[in-house]
Inverse folding.
């Protein structure tokens, strides 16, 4: 009966494949999960798309502002999906009373986080492709009219989303399911300071100062600059990635600290039971 | 069975308190487990059985003492040990939206099995799960979920298996089949089995050694017959009630 397990290293592909396989099966046959990927982005797209149709008729309204509204909407959704993809995957382990099985298995918490990042990337890609295609057919909006440079900004947004997802996961692990609302809500704490639909310049001084510490604000400012000036705003891009590095380091530090504390205090053993 | 093999698990003076200065959940427990041995842990709720098992699995870090599995420290070297052990508990489940086969395949991959699909087919047949292998977990009976949990615990062909009340939700016939299967694995492969149970008849018939825990300590241990002789009781149930009810000073 011995087909024997091989020791698991940080680079073993099978454990990663196992976690991703389960995610794929869950999505393959779950309509609510598909709706989660497509439903909200589509509704947002319709609401904001119709608004841009109206704004286009106002003579004093700049065409670039219309483009930036829809571009901002698509990018914001990527950030939201990236964060949620990680947090909700962790919550699903709790809901199905499966978390302890994973903690007993020969994988590290970093295998789980890495798998969550890969899975979240897949969902973002799927959701964004459909939303961008519909934006093109319904509202004649071409996301890559912003240029291929946009991909660098997308990378910065996804990294911020993943960092927030890891932080949320650590908080849920520490405080239990009472904190699970953060999986859906934490990103909206950052929205007013992310300059998604408006420039930082119109924010009150305190909010403007806070926005300087949010990577997304540089992404959305950079996107608008790309539209109006037409050149890549490298300073914005640099600042976005610099802050992303700080956020990610903070998230990993918090996550590792909570795991260490959990193994001392045992609060993770009550989750989902 | 018999447990004449090498020591696969050694715990020395292991202690755990959940709160600094609070009561001991486990207090200075010395314990060893041999290859091919079946050891059962019994005791009232709150006696420290689950905490001790959780420390052996690396889910909890002891405050004092050490646990070594295959000669390696559970806290420092967990990753070198984890693929050789496994665990099942009636408190746990697996994702409801997946079928039994899909869940087992997930864990065969997570445990880095070389031929995961073959392993799953083998487990399904071994545990008699084929008839509901393609049914979602959410549609299974409690007993079927328990059997799937045990299949998951055997997915990596473990050298040490930890089971928390494995037969609590099974009917007598399935319980007997499971005991027979586990006994074969212990006998033929030298697997060590440490399990908790409240079923004293099962503990008496199935275990090489019994640990009676009370208030975080091992209050008594030995074979069923030696314990009953020592405490002059007719059966383990009476012994359990006697030892569980005793206060400090009864440690044997």
């Amino acid at each position: 009966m011995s087909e024997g397990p091989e020791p698991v290293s940080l680079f073993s592909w099978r454990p990663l494949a196992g976690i991703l396989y389960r995610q794929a099966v869950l999505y393959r046959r779950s309509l609510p999960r598909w709706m989660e990927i497509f439903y909200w982005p589509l509704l947002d797209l319709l609401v904001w798309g119709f608004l841009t149709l109206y704004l286009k008729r106002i003579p004093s309204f700049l065409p670039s502002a219309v483009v930036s509204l829809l571009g901002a909407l698509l990018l914001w959704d990527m950030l939201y999906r990236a964060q949620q993809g990680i947090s909700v995957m962790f919550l699903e382990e709790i809901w199905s009373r499966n978390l302890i099985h994973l903690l007993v298995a020969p994988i590290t918490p970093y295998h789980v986080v890495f798998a969550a990042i890969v899975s979240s990337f897949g969902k973002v890609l799927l959701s964004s492709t459909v939303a961008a295609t519909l934006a093109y057919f319904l509202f004649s909006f071409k996301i890559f009219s912003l240029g291929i440079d946009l991909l660098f900004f997308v990378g910065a947004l996804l990294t911020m989303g993943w960092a927030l997802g890891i932080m949320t996961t650590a908080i849920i692990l520490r405080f239990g399911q009472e904190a699970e609302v953060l999986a859906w809500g934490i990103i909206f704490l950052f929205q007013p300071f992310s300059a998604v639909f408006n420039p930082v310049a119109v924010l009150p001084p305190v909010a403007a100062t806070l926005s300087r510490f949010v990577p997304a604000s540089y992404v959305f400012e950079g996107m608008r600059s790309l539209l109006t000036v037409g050149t890549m705003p490298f300073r914005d891009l640099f600042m976005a990635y610099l802050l992303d590095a700080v956020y990610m380091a903070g998230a990993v530090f918090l996550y590792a600290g909570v795991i260490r504390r959990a193994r001392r205090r045992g609060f993770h053993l009550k989750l989902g039971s | 069975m018999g447990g004449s093999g090498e020591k696969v698990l050694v715990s020395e003076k292991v202690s755990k308190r959940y709160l600094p200065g609070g009561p001991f959940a486990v207090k200075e427990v010395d314990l060893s487990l041999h290859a091919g041995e079946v050891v059962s842990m019994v005791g009232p709720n709150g006696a420290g059985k689950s905490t001790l098992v959780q420390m052996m699995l690396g889910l909890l870090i002891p405050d004092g003492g050490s646990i070594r599995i295959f000669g390696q420290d559970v806290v420092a070297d967990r990753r070198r040990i984890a693929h050789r052990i496994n665990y099942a508990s009636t408190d746990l489940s697996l994702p409801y939206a997946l079928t039994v086969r899909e869940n087992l395949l997930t864990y065969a991959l997570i445990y880095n099995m070389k031929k995961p699909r073959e392993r799953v087919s083998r487990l399904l047949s071994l545990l008699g799960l084929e008839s509901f292998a393609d049914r979602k977990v959410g549609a299974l009976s409690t007993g079927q979920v328990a059997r799937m949990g045990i299949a998951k615990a055997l997915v990596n062909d473990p050298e040490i298996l930890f089971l928390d009340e494995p037969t609590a939700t099974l009917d007598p016939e399935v319980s007997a089949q499971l005991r027979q299967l586990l006994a074969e694995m212990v006998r033929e492969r030298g697997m060590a089995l440490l399990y908790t149970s409240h079923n004293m008849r099962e503990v008496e018939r199935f275990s090489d050694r019994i640990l009676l825990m009370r208030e975080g300590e091992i209050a008594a241990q030995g074979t069923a017959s030696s314990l009953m002789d020592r405490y002059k009781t007719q059966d383990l149930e009476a012994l359990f009630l006697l030892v569980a009810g005793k206060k400090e000073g009864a440690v044997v």
